[in-house]
Amino acid sequence: MNKVVLAYSGGLDTSVAVAWLREQYGAEVVTLTVDLGGGSIREGVERRAMAAGASKAYVVDARETFVSQYVWRALQANAVYQGAYPLATALARPLLAQLLVEVAQKEGADAVAHGCTGKGNDQVRFDVAVHALDPGLEVIAPMRVGMGLTREQSIDYANARGIELPITKASPYSIDVNLWGRSCETGVLEDPWVTPPDDAYAWTVAPSDAPAPVELVIGFEGGIPVSIDGERLGSVALVQRLHDLGGAHGVGRIDHVEDRLVGIKSREIYEAPAAVILHTAHKALEGLVLSKEQLRFNRLVADELAQIIYDGLWFSALSRDLRTYAMSSQRVVSGDVRMRLDHGRAVVVGRRSPLSLYDKNLATYDEGDAFDHASAVGFIEIFGLPLRVEAARHGAVGKHHGAAWTWTEPLLADLPTTVAEGAGAGAG
Ligand code: ARG
Q1: Is residue 310 a contact partner of residue 121, using CB atoms and an 8 Å limit?
Q2: How far apart are CA 271 and CA 176, in angstroms?
Q3: Ligand 1 pocket, mutate which of 82, 178, 185 (most atoms under 8 A from CB)
Q4: Which residue in 22, 40, 63, 122 is the catalytic one?
């Protein structure tokens, strides 16, 4: 082993990993730190990497790419894992893996390394993505192959080698952040019955402490948000704005028991103010401009793509094809959604689009109704035809042919019923 490129956060574990990799493999260690927003990058990270023994420290600002190439793809597809998790960490992994591979190729390294444990999803995502992009690279996860030190052992290990320790206080949780979301797990959260303590949250105020509700208008073009209250914003700035505003209104707290891909159920606390606001708004706009068949089919794609992203299969052919489908389905998803941020909730209060399929003249119960009520009769005749045939052949209410498939039992005789009789009763 000559050279290893290590995904480096600047925390204790990856700082120790720099020294561990050098000692264990006798290899030169190059670090890669990627800024994905949300406070994912720590002050002085290159200096710490060098102090820990790295020969070179790359720092890449990938915020724009992350939002426009990964986050927007997931948003356009409504990809949310198990209906709860907006996939922040999962979306970032393929991007990090690609950058690791590119740095490794540029540096002529034989391996890449990451600080994931052997129990989570992230190791799978890194390994699978790296090997999809460059099967010749070895992937080393020090935590999985013997480095596994307790916090105290890591501190001793670092002190013995003069490695600088992060100044940040040790968190009782395992945390991952990027602009799209923050995840928090382990510690007291491992009991799914325990109410998340206040210190599990860092981005959002408690909904009960939120200020008076505010309304904002989010403008979309082709399924991508482009403006807030008429002001056009770049991708990163737009997400950042909603992150700040949503957080201040307690929006985006998610408490979820999640099925990891290694077969474990795990309790996760997420904060994703921008993701919650944007997914809610995006779905509302789709409801206005897409057909019911598109909406139904898109839900299948959303679930499938969420699973693929969660499982680290971003670079698979199916992933690419579903993303391409989702993008294409967004041609007409342009317009505005008015949202109210109200004590932890992001509520849709209005939507409009020049491409809207909503027709007031068809929907109205007031004057101006253009819907042909008489033609409803013929429609229902045809629409209900198969059901009438089925009922006639297989039995309807109260008919017992002794056949096993007659399943509808009479109800009226068993329900408390009163009957009022008027003058006309029994007449005729
Ligand atoms: N459960 C989430 C996922 O699998 C979050 C993982 C966060 N990673 C971490 N090292 N804390 O995507």
Answers
A1: yes
A2: 11
A3: 185
A4: 122
- Dihedral-angle region of residue 360 (phi above 0 means left; psi in -120 to 50 means alpha; beta otherwise): alpha
For 220, other C-beta atoms within 10 Å of its C-beta total 25
Domains of the chain by residue range: 3-66+87-170, 175-290+332-358, 359-399
Is the predicted pLDDT of residue 113 greater than 70, yes or no? yes
Question: Which of 85, 89, 91 maximizes ligand 1 atoms within 8 Å of its Cβ, making it the mutation to test the pocket?
Answer: 89
Centre of ligand 1 from the C-alpha of residue 263, in Å: 14
Query: CA-to-CA distance for 372 and 101, rounded, in angstroms?
Result: 62
Q: Can you name the CATH fold of 175-290+332-358?
A: Argininosuccinate synthetase, chain A, domain 2 (3.90.1260)
The protein residue whose alpha carbon is closest to atom 4 in ligand 1 is 121
Would you tell me how many other CB atoms lie within 10 Å of the CB of residue 179?
A: 25
Q: List the 345-352 sheet strands across, edge first.
A: 231-232, 224-228, 214-221, 335-342, 345-352
Is the full-model pTM beyond 0.90? yes
Q: Say whether 93 is catalytic.
A: yes
Give the residue-averaged pLDDT of 26-31: 96
**Token pair of 303 as six digits:** 């679930």
Kindly give the distance from the C-alpha atom of residue 11 to the centroid of ligand 1, in angstroms, as a whole number. Answer: 16
Indicate if 244 belongs to the active site: no
Alpha helices in 108-172 (DSSP H): 121-133, 151-160
Cα separation, 355 vs 284, in Å, equals 14
CATH topology of domain 3-66+87-170: Rossmann fold (3.40.50)
| Per-residue pLDDT at 380 | 96
